[in-house]
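REVIEWER CHECKLIST
Item 1: Sequence provided? yes
Item 2: Single chain? yes
Item 3: Sequence as submitted:
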Amino acid sequence: MYILSKFLYVEVVKKMVVLLAGGSSVLMDAMISKLNKNGHRVYLLTGQRDNRFSYKQVFEKYNFPYDSGSIKDIFESTRPDVVVFMGAYDTNFDWETDARQESVRYVAGLVNILSAFSVVKNGKFIYFSSQEVYSEVHIDNIAEDTPVSPRGFKAMALVQGEEACENFRRTQGLNTFILRFDQIYWVPRKGKTEDNVCFRMCLEALKTGKISVNERRIFSILYLNDAVELAYRVLCERAPWQSVYNISSMEAINEKQLAEKIKEAIGPEITIVDSTAGTGHRRVLDCSRYKSEFPYEIFNGYDKGVKLAAGFMKQHSNSFILEDDEGGGLAVKLWNYARKIIKALFPFVEALVCFVLAHFLSEAAVDGRFLARLDIYLLYVLLFAVVHGQQQAVFSAFLAVAGYCCQQMADRTGFEVLLDYNTYVWMAQLFIVGLVVGYMKDQLRFIRNEGKCRVQYLNGQLRDIEDINESNVKLKHNFESQVVNHRESLGKIYELSSSLEQYGPEEVLFYAAQVLSRLMDCKDVAVYNVANSDYARLFSATSPEARKLGNSIKYTDMDEMYKEIKERRVYVNRNMVERMPMMASAVYSEDDMQLILMLWGVPWERMTLGEANRLTIVGYLIQNAVVRANRYLDAIRNQRYVEGTSVLGEEAFTHLAKAFFDAKDKGLTEYVLMEILTEDNNYEHVAKMLGGIIRQTDYLGIFKEGRLYALLSNTNKENVGGIIDRFRALGYEVRIDEEAVL
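Item 4: Structure as written out by the authors:
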């Protein structure tokens, strides 16, 4: 039987090298996690020279600003398949302080990155924009071709970034793509202030117990995980049709409706206050273009996503509400300000109180026999110099001088006190001791703080070293496991795939299922032979579970699977659809589908891009073995068939029957061997008569001393009755041979 005649082309969804450019953020973390889960290698350009954030899942991190001349070297070194510039979600830019200056820095950095990318000219460049490029009121959802209307420096910078990408695409021929996200929200990190409408409304509810809303403000928000999933599909697509895509939930909601969902999550004590302050607007991105090209599904709707975010903020409210925010009332805020002032003035009040005590002790010591020579004021200044430093030493010294002068004027006039040189000697002594001790105290404090900073810096360095060491150890173990008999190692794959060469041409497809099972570490594998443009017949399977679809399937009715395999991609059953394989791939001969490989027993955690790539590669190797076998069978076709017929000669049929017998003995297939009882030795006539009723996967041949036999593949005695009836209708009696010795 002729199955494959040429080398086949199957599109390989390869593991990508992805370069992410952006500062630390929740979106960045989610992108890194998604890419790593699917087996891609991730590089990170932080955009800062002194970046202290650690990413354990990043293969390499580059701490360079975007305008650095080293960007070109980074691109040439990494050769990324995909570059993602975080754009609107890049935390390296502070749009609150000096938005004009930041917009200049933003555009300059992006153009420098695009220029470096244009030199490499490899892969795709993805630019993350947002709904902020639109400021006008829109009655309908906003499509990609709607003219932008930026308002503010950030929005204008984002638009200039989009225009830069389009210019490089048009003039340099670069594969630049713009993803315009609607408002994104997520579960915030403890104590971290986020910039999204859901966070702001939840924070207002926790601070004040109420939420101010404007029903005329209509928008749509998209949960972080859904945004990442939708963006990831564009990253993986080899040639997207368009250069700009909107990504949105397209589910319009106003502020009051969102506040109701937040109230439901936090508690009924929250009050929703209708406010007409401010203008209304409607801003909802239309992602129909995206839906027409990519699979689209929202897993976290408003009911689920808002509940997660609001519930988390309620549970950890202490980390989001600052001291200044508690209560939210004016009186409490004034008290907090007063408390800060009191805290700053406390050392001076303390000095005054202690001065009163020191003055009283000094007055009492004057008449004392033992304490008369004790300088209480000097001890007072020394105490504050030791405790508080130079500033309080000077202040307490001035108080001590005032007290000393008052004490001396009890017996003398003020003029006499001022003329007495002992007064100035004492004052000099007082200030010298106070300043010297205070200076030493300040120096000790400075040294201690500097030591703490050094310790913190060294701890950060130590954490970085630990991360680098952990990454190195992980890579070391990965390489070791690949070398030492790992199922993903080249040696292991070659060893198993080359084992097909030990089988005869008739046996290759049987044991292809067995080899596929071992290489994919899956015990339930089925190989279907495509009979025509609608149906495929089971050729071999490694377990009863793999046979659950039956011996014949109409694969064109399996919509999701057929859509993927006809595009020469690997089908992955991520939605866990019943009665569908976990993974499937097709083998093509030019434009004709020849084989369908199905895997059933793949666990959820292994349904990744890496496994899909492995299935594609293994399919290539099996394909090569099958092509080689079929070419050999074609070469000896005249020796195998009775001349002028499709009836196999006795030697060829015996080899074929033995192959089926051995495969059945290993549980890979089923078959029925029938003798056709006829005295007509005109095999050409018999083959012509029976050719219309036997299947493409059945065989006619000479067996056992010149008698005519039929071998029915993937058939057993229980369901062979219909075929026997068709034989008899043509005047041929048959007998099932259960005692054939092969």
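Item 5: Key structural point noted by reviewer: DSSP finds 23 helices and 25 strands in the chain.
Item 6: Recommendation: ____
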